[in-house]
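Reproducibility note. Readers wishing to regenerate the assembly model reported in the main text can use the exact inputs given here. Chain order matters: entities are listed in the order in which they were concatenated for prediction.
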Amino acid sequence: MTDVFEEIDQIAGIAARKDELLSLHTSFAVGGPCDLMVWVSDIDALKRLLALAKTHSLPVMALGNGSNVLVRDGGVGGVVIRLVDDFATIEAEGEHIHAGAGASLAETVSKATSSGIGGLEFLAGIPGTVGGAVVTNAGSRDVWVSSRLVELGVLTDDLTARRLSPGDLGFGYRHSGIDKTWIVTDVLLAGYRCEVEEARHKVEEYLNMRRTTQPTGENTAGCVFKNPPDDAAGRVIDHAGLKGSRKGGAEISMIHGNWVVNTGGATAGEILDLINETRDKVQDEYGIDLELEINVIGRD
Ligand SMILES: Cc1cc2nc3c(=O)[nH]c(=O)nc-3n(C[C@H](O)[C@H](O)[C@H](O)COP(=O)(O)OP(=O)(O)OC[C@H]3O[C@@H](n4cnc5c(N)ncnc54)[C@H](O)[C@@H]3O)c2cc1C
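Running the prediction on these inputs yields the following structure tokens for the assembly.
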């Protein structure tokens, strides 16, 4: 195994670190180590990495900003890929934004706004990457990134670069049908032409709404559960009297019932226990089966 990792480390355009703690790369600030974390700068390096991983049957997964994942305390086997440099570029033209999958969503919204492109303001304050946003179909309750998506580039596990349309990808509420073995490489989004000030004003409104209704600035992963049909998970959890419930360092936020906060020193196990307990209580009291919005990954 060590030899493969050394081979990966030697690929041009790759920087690698063994046994990197995922708690350093997730917004919950929990999660054990991955065998190898690699920062990949360009498409050639990504192809060589995937080819090598395939030859050695090494599992690979892409990680964006780790703001929608709960990584278990035992970490993740195999290679965790971070897309940087060529994959983090953002270009604006007309009403379009072309961004690498590793680009920050905040910077993408900012680029759109300053270029007089409206329609992406609802993504302001979501702390992910463009790739992570498309895979999770991030957005507000009513507007999702898929509604602004024109085209997406992926590298499949057989190393084919494909261009796909939203219609190919089975998007739904916080869901995409993007194959788990594919790496999203870049995304083309469309907004509409507008005054810079108008877009800035809308972004500020979204950010203010977040500041007043969400525990921003804490170690969280945003909403834990999807909203059940015609209801809000936060409302149900609040109604069940579960705000402020704790397991070790994990707490259901007093500000928003659908957010779990790592108040300091929580383990992934504690967060998961609190989530499961909440789900069970809501099921028992209201007969509502809350579905997870966050991705739980890794080994115990
Ligand atoms: C404070 C806060 C506020 C939030 N608010 C919102 C909100 O309003 N709306 C919302 O929808 N979400 C929200 N979230 C959740 C999260 O920010 C979004 O889901 C975000 O889009 C995830 O992006 P990421 O880059 O962090 O993805 P990650 O968490 O790193 O990854 C998410 C999934 O995508 C996969 N993935 C990531 N990049 C790629 C790639 N290039 N190719 C293939 N697979 C990939 C990962 O393997 C994983 O399965 C919030 C989170 C926080 C902490």
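We highlight two features of this model. The mean pLDDT is 97. Residues 89-213 form a domain with the Uridine Diphospho-n-acetylenolpyruvylglucosamine Reductase; domain 3 fold (CATH 3.30.465.10).
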